[in-house]
Amino acid sequence: MSKKVAVVTGANKGIGLAIVRGLCKAGYSGDVLLTARNEKLGLEAVELLKAEGYKNVFFHQLDICDQTSCLALKTFLEKSYGGLDVLVNNAGIAFKVKAPEPFGEQAEVTMRTNFWGTLWVCHALLPLLRPNARVVNVSSFVSKRSLNECNPELQAKFRSTEISEEELCLLMGEFVVAAQNGEHKAQGWPSTAYGPSKIGVTVLSRIQARVLNETRPGDGILLNACCPGWVRTDMAGPNAPKSPEEGAETPVYLALLPEGAKEPHGQLVWDKTVQEW
């Protein structure tokens, strides 16, 4: 029951698959659960990694937008491992620049996956964290750029060290409604669906780290948001400068911060460097 276990979401391809490979390559001592919404694609990814010699990789189905699916993974981890040691919330989506869907629809779908899906996974799995666990929420440099494009009032709210999860959730909901009504610009939001969703992930990480400090101060748990960079994936396109393996470097670094490390914690980390928020 005490065997270590790491979970990576959205891991059948791209950065997620590279993160799983990176954990294995670094000699992670426990099992690595490669999770994906599509069972067939997830199992194929596991077979690929096993063929490369990584025998500690296993598949578990997870649709982060389905709270029942998140809770099923929680039950599995409790029964099979008794806890959780590493969680990398990588799953996410982005619409193409020329996507035909109306902006309001893009905003709702993107927020549901990138923010709410990440939140639901955290609600299910963070209670399982063992002492010295590591949590990595994959955000983006776009979160910082989009923050700077918000009006001063929104910027102040998102930079506040006192903002609560409930307040953040309300703001994310307000953006979607404003986008659906064509009022997001007038209300001080940027014209990107992806950016505000990743602002949500970065700010959620700051809140979660603060709560861990308050509720589990002696347990040595470190939780951060990170930016993998602009990576050549189906989502970001073929012209991005980084390979998936290069994009995985910072998430893997944060997932494997050594026991006894005190920082980074509650930060946005890019190229293994803490960014000012």
Helix/strand structural class: alpha/beta
First CA to last CA: what distance? 39 Å
Which sequence of strands runs across the widest sheet? Answer: 3-2-1-4-5-6-7-8
Q: How many strand elements? A: 8
Give the strand content.
Answer: 15-25%
Shape: globular
- Main sheet overview: 8 strands, mixed
Number of helices: 9
Low-confidence runs of at least 5 consecutive residues: none
Q: If you average the pLDDT, what whole number results? A: 95
Radius of gyration: 18 Å
Summarize the amount of helix as a percent range: 40-55%
| Element string (H = helix, E = strand) | EHEHEHEHEHHHHEHEE
Describe the structure.
This protein has 277 residues and is α/β, with parallel strands linked by helices. The protein is 47% helix and 16% strand. It has 9 helices and 8 strands. An 8-stranded mixed beta sheet has the order 3-2-1-4-5-6-7-8, sandwiched between helices. Strand 4, helix 4 (103-125) and strand 5 form a beta-alpha-beta unit. It is globular. The chain starts with a strand and ends with a strand. The model has no long low-confidence stretch (mean pLDDT 95).
